[in-house]
What does this fold into?
Amino acid sequence: NHVFTVDLEAQIVTGPDGEVYAFEVDAGRKANLMEGLDEIGSSMTAASEIDTFEARRRVSMPWLEKAS
It folds into this structure.
């Protein structure tokens, strides 16, 4: 078995021979991975801001609401 160790915070992979490889990752994606968030989870961290936006939009653009 070959064991590789990934250190996301340091952005390095250590191979089974001890060789260290650096890698690049987008800062936003890295933060989400470190927090265990996918795209939906990341969006949900802004739920209150989204709710506020939607409430304001309903008042300022009522024609966008579905007819019941």
